[in-house]
Each structure stands twice: as C-alpha cells, then as structure tokens.
Specification:
The structure holds two protein chains of two kinds. By secondary structure, chain A is of the alpha/beta class. Chain A has helices at about 10-25, 45-55, 70-75, 80-90, 125-135, 155-160, 160-165, 215-225, 245-255, 295-300, 305, 320-330, and strands spanning about 1-5, 30, 35-40, 65, 75-80, 95-100, 115-120, 135-140, 140, 170-175, 185, 205-210, 235-240, 270-275, 280-290, 310-315, 335-340, 345-350. In chain B, helix 4 crosses helix 12. Chain B is globular and about 65 Å long. The chains are: A alpha/beta, B alpha/beta.
Chain lengths: ~350, ~350
C-alpha cells in the first residue's frame, strides 16, 4: 500500500499512478466532496471481487460508480427524462442517480433489479482522473460496510484489519475532508411503467363519463357497483390514471356504497389496505402498485388469497400488473377504469372490461 | 438486562442490542451506507430481502455489542403497523429465538417506537437529543411516509389519537409531488435540497384543512393542486427547470410545514402539553424541524426531536420502547398466536 499526499505531488503523477493501479485490478482510496471513496474498475471482475472482499458483508447492496460527465453516464445507463433533469441541473454534486443499467459493468455492481447508481463528484482531480481513465470508477465509501463514513485516511486505517489494509494498493491523502453528508440517492426508474400493453387489445367500445366534481366521481362508483352482482365472483376495479385525477375519490365512493364507515386512506405506503364489508362478510381490498417494480411483487402481496373469496378489490396503477390481471380475467369480474385530467375539476372517466 | 430488538416493518431490516434503555449496537441493512441505499428506499417487496438479511443483521448486531445470543434476556419485535409480509419475517425469526432460548418476548408498536426514538440513550447513558426529563402529558407528532398523526401521551403506554391524515401521509405527499416535478424517488430529500435555493413566496398553495375544526390532516387536495399547477407550467418547466423547481419546492415544503403546525398549535393551546415530541422519517427535514422549534418556542413549549439517525426506521427505538414495556411486565403470554398486525393503531392494545 502506497500513500501519496495530494499537497506535495503534481496532479499528472497522481492520475498516472491511479490509472496504472486501476488497470491492474487494484484498489485506490480517493477524496471526494463528501468523504473518502474507494475506486476499482467496475468493468473488471477481478477488481470488483477485490473490492467486495475489502468491503465485506454487503447483503446484496449495489455499488454506485462515478463518471466524468453525462456523456459517459449514457454509455452505462439509460437516462430518462427525470434523470436528464437531475444531470442537467444538479450534477456534479452530492447526488447519486439510479437508472436502468446497460449491463456494461460487472453484475455485482448493479442492484438486483438491474439498476445502477451513478454520481459525478464535484472534485476536479477525480473528474480528470475518470476522464483520462476513460471509464467509470466505483464510488463506494472507503469504509467497511456498516462502519463509519471516513473523512480522514486515519479514519479508514484505524477501522480495518491488516488483511484489508493489504488489499488497498494506493491512497491519495487529501488530509481531513469537510464533514459533508454522503450523497442523496434518487431513483429515476420508478415512474417507468414496464408492461403497458401486450398484444392486441380489444376495446369493446368503452363507455365514457365526464365528471365535474369529486362527488360525481363518487356517484359513478356507486352506479357501477349497482350493476354488478356482489358475492359471486371477486370484483376487481383496475384503475389507471395520473396523480390527482380522482382514483382515490372513486375508491372512497366505492367504500361508501359498500357501507364501509372507516376513512379510506392512501395505500401507497403499505401497498394494501384492508377493510371489512360487514353485511356480506367479505373484504374490501385497496391495493396500490405505485412503488412496485415487478409483477411478481404483486403475487407476493398474497393476491391469490385475495381472490379466493368474492372480495371487492381496487387496484391503483393497475396497468403495471396487466399481465397478471389478464391471466385471471375469466375467474373474476374485471373492470378497467381510466381517469384523465380535463380541467381544474373536470375528469374524463372511461370504463370497459378490457384494458384502456 | 439485555434486549435484542428487531424491526422489519417496511423496507429496512434492522436489529439492535440494548442494555435497558442504552444502545449497544444498531444495524440497519440498507441505510447505513447511504451511498448505495437505493435498495432500501424503494420497497421491492421487502419479504425476500428481509429473509436474506435478517440473520446476518442479527449476527452483526450481537457481534457489535460483543454479546452472544445466550446473553440476551429478552427478545423484542415490531408487531405492526407496517407492510404485512415484511413484518412477518422479523416476527417469525424472533419467535423462533424466544422459543429456542426460552426467554420472554415483548411486542412493540412501530409508531410507539417512533415516540421512544426520543428516549434512546447511547452506551454511556446520555440521550441522543435535547431531552432532559420526561414530563407528561406529551404531544407526539409522528410524521413519516405512511403516517401523519398527533397523539397525546398521558403516561408510558397511554395514548389518545387526537388527529391523523384522512388520505395521504406527509412523506407520501413529498414523493407524489416530486413526480410531476420530474425529481425521481424518494421525493423528500431532493425537494428539501431544491427548496434551499427557492423562494417560498412565489407559488401560493392552499394550506389544507384550515377551515375544519378537527385535528385531522389531508394532503390529497394539495397534491392535486400541485399536479394541476405544474401541468399549466409544463412548457416552462421543460424550458427552464431552474426557474420553476426550486421555488415550487420551497413553496410546497412551506405549505406542508404550515399545515402541520397549524393543527399542532391548535392542539397545544387546547391540551397544554408539557413537551412536544417529534418522530418519523419526515422529521429529518431540517426546514420542518426549524419551523417547529420556532413556533413552539412562541408558545413556550419545549420541542424534542430525535437525532437524525433515529428519525428513520430502526430497531434501537424498538428496543428502548420494549424496555419500558418490560418495566410494566408486558410480556407475550400466548406465543403461538402472535401474528402481524399491519393496521395497528398506536392506541390499540396488543392482546397476545
């Protein structure tokens, strides 16, 4: 392990030594605007294995990488509109942006769901290093997992074993770093709806209702419910529509018509909220897939059990689980409802037995 | 007395060893290493992740506290509220340990845990925050991704819910408004960041529930208002992001803060609590914390805030809450029957 002092070494030499170390699969401890990080070549299996060896227990956590600019980021991840905004307005800086990985880094660097966290450090030496290296470097903090965030080289060395010390090839010592918070992690992949529509969709002439108020939206819920035979099959209201278009109001309307006195609160956080329909000895289940990534997660929620009884189920952001709903559509009463914004209080609500 | 506490109520797997109300160790899988924390922030349905992590997290908590599982006198676990399938994992594990080592089990309400996050002491026996002495009645204001409620605490374990959200929780409102602002997830930290450079006077947003006489909250109306406003600003937003976003974030954050304080002030005037205790992930927001302190000072009430690392979900607050339950001998009698209570309220008794 070599330590070079930032203050008495010329930049060119530091960068050359870092690049040599990285190219031979080694580990480099380096300063950033937040804390000391540890760099390995994220495209080299050997280097990543060495890094994981150093960091110890990870329990499947991913490792973010640092790039020099948006252009380099684009080679490694898919940058959507949201990510674009953050890159253009906030980077370089202490933010890690999570996007869908293009698979160019070693698997263990990515998260289980195929995303990759990218950051552009606000530290000119490191930006220059990455630029000259021509690819990203890992941007994990230089401590062992679950240990203190390091702001001095002593912080690091005092808290690791001899064996770990031997894994470090090079340290760039910039002295004591200002105690800035670790970077904020922003996931930009959550708003992408993966499975929108598959195959041919027969619209079977959907009906349209123009609602001019929350009350009218609730009334529509009541009307729809009246025309369905409750207690025979599970009834699923599959709701589609952007934020603030009336999905929750519609659900409140359904609950009221079913004689549920409790207040219907948002299920976004807990993914499902359960209410009893006393008269009928059935359940009213309010589900939200807003925060889900994969359709399997929906199965994990116990969806199969929910449809064993003729319960009444409302699913918000249902297009995310359209595949599962299509598979079961013959054994349930499935109503797709789409909410569209038209004006301050006006909403266009379409409904049909097929996805809209 | 050594307590091993586990919390798997949402997307963090956490275990902690406490000696009475002092923390010997606390492990949170996914939050400690903030650089890569996105696995924790986004709840890929937590069950599988919890199952993978629960054993190593408990092992690490024991190792850090330098104790063996045989040394543990009492086991504690979060029974609810939370994500049903996530709660399940921690409960199952702790039940097994309690049976295997023949030691009593204590069940903790997660929201009660947030209250007790203010009463956690470090290994030297000092509180992490500005708490000096506990004086009842206490007004607890709990604000997180899943909850927004005001609870009057008359004594340890004695709660009355004065008001709560009728629809979205505050944390959720932040996440949802971040969406039309194109800011990604989670919304809280990034809105706070942008708000720092923004002018909160620019967008006048309506403070929800001002005309109602009760102490409840509601955020779906404000959310819709934001969506509608941003729709109109869409063109400008695309063209000149920095002209809109910081000001909008600042305005939104101020409106949310005002709306909470509006109700809290009402309650303080009516119930005259000796102290106001804050808890929950949203309390990590510095602006809200500052406004709270300022406004409560005007009313001559001391505001107690958990240290930042205790705002999020963690098992140390569960361990410390368990300690107070142990003092009252609230142990599980019917171990076989213990089952998750995802919709548990803070004033509800757990009857196992």
């Amino acid at each position: 392990m070599d330590i070079i002092k930032l203050s008495d070494t010329i930049q060119e030499e530091i960068i050359n030594r870092c690049i040599d170390t990285l190219n031979s699969g080694g580990l480099v401890v380096y300063p950033t605007e937040t804390c000391y990080g540890i760099a390995a070549d994220p495209t080299s299996q050997k280097a990543v294995d060495k890094l994981l060896n150093y960091k110890k227990k990870r329990e499947g956590k991913a490792i973010s990488v640092a790039v020099s600019d948006k252009k380099m980021a684009k080679e490694y991840v898919e940058i959507n509109e949201i990510a674009e905004n953050i890159y253009n307005n906030y980077l370089p800086g202490p933010i890690t942006v999570v996007s869908k990985s293009k698979g160019k880094v070693v698997k263990k660097v990515e998260a289980d769901d195929g995303t990759l966290g990218i950051r552009i450090p606000k530290y000119s030496l490191i930006l220059e290093l990455i630029k000259q290296f021509g690819k990203p470097i890992t941007a994990t903090s230089a401590n062992e997992s679950y240990k203190k965030t390091p702001y001095t080289v002593k912080n690091i060395l005092d808290n690791i074993s001899k064996k770990q010390q031997n894994l470090i090839d090079l340290i760039i010592d910039a002295g004591k770093l200002p105690k800035n918070k670790p970077s904020t992690v922003i996931n930009t992949t959550l708003n992408e709806i993966k499975i929108l529509r598959e195959g041919d969709v027969n619209l079977k002439s959907p009906k349209t209702f123009i609602s001019k108020s929350e009350r009218e939206t609730k009334r529509l819920a009541n009307e729809l419910l009246k025309n369905i035979n409750i207690g025979k099959k599970p009834i699923i209201f599959a709701l589609q529509g952007e934020l603030g278009t009336g999905k929750t109001q519609f659900t409140k309307g359904l609950a009221k018509s079913l004689g549920i006195k409790q207040n219907i609160r948002s299920p976004t956080f807990f993914l499902v909220r359960e209410y009893n329909i006393k008269e009928k000895n059935l359940k009213f289940l309010h589900l939200d897939t807003y925060r889900m990534f994969e359709q399997e997660e929906f199965v994990d929620l116990g969806f199969e059990n929910m449809i064993k009884q003729p319960n009444i189920i409302v699913i918000e952001w249902a297009e995310k689980v359209s595949k599962i709903l299509r598979e079961i559509k013959d054994s349930v009463e499935l109503i797709w409802i789409k909410f569209e914004y038209q004006g301050k209080n006006t909403r266009k609500i379409k409904y049909s037995n097929e996805i809209l | 007395m050594k307590i091993l506490a586990v919390d798997t109520s949402c997307d963090e797997t956490s275990a902690s060893v406490c000696e009475n109300d002092r923390v010997l160790s606390n492990i949170i899988s996914s939050q400690v290493d903030l650089h890569k924390k996105w696995r924790g922030v986004v709840p890929i349905i937590a069950k599988r992740a919890h199952q993978e992590r629960i054993n190593p997290v408990i092992e690490l908590a024991l190792k850090r506290a330098r104790v063996k599982v045989d040394d543990i006198d009492i086991f504690a676990v979060t029974i609810g509220p939370g994500l049903a399938i996530a709660l399940e994992v921690g409960i199952k594990k702790i039940k097994e340990l309690s049976i295997k080592y023949k030691k009593p089990l204590v069940l903790v309400n997660h929201m009660e845990g947030h209250v007790y996050s203010n009463l956690v002491k470090n290994s030297k026996g000092n509180y992490y925050n500005n708490l000096k002495k506990i004086e009842f009645p206490i007004l607890c204001v709990l604000v997180s991704g899943g909850h927004t409620e005001m609870v009057l605490m008359k004594d340890h374990g004695n709660y009355e819910i004065l008001g709560q959200t009728l629809d979205d929780a505050v944390g959720e409102a932040f996440d949802k408004v971040a969406r039309p602002l194109m800011l990604g997830y989670p919304g809280g930290p990034i809105i706070e960041e942008f708000a720092k450079r923004g002018n909160h006077e620019r967008f006048k947003l309506p403070i929800p529930m001002q005309r109602r006489n009760d102490y409840n909250f509601s955020y779906s109306g404000l959310k819709t208002e934001c969506v509608v406003r941003l729709k109109k600003l869409k063109k400008e937003l695309n063209k000149n992001f920095t002209n809109i976003v910081p000001d909008f974030c600042a305005s939104f954050q101020k409106t949310v803060s005002d709306s909470i304080l509006f109700k809290v002030k009402k309650v303080v005037k009516k119930y005259k609590p000796k102290q106001v205790l804050l808890g929950g992930g949203v309390i990590a927001n510095n602006y809200i914390k500052r406004e709270f302190r300022k406004e409560m000072k005007k009313l001559n009430v001391n505001t107690i805030v958990p240290s930042k690392k205790l705002c999020g979900d963690n098992a140390m607050m569960i361990g410390v809450c368990a300690y107070y339950k142990i003092k009252k001998k609230e142990f599980v009698k019917n171990l076989e029957k213990v089952d998750r209570l995802p919709n548990l309220q803070i004033d509800q008794k757990v009857g196992y």
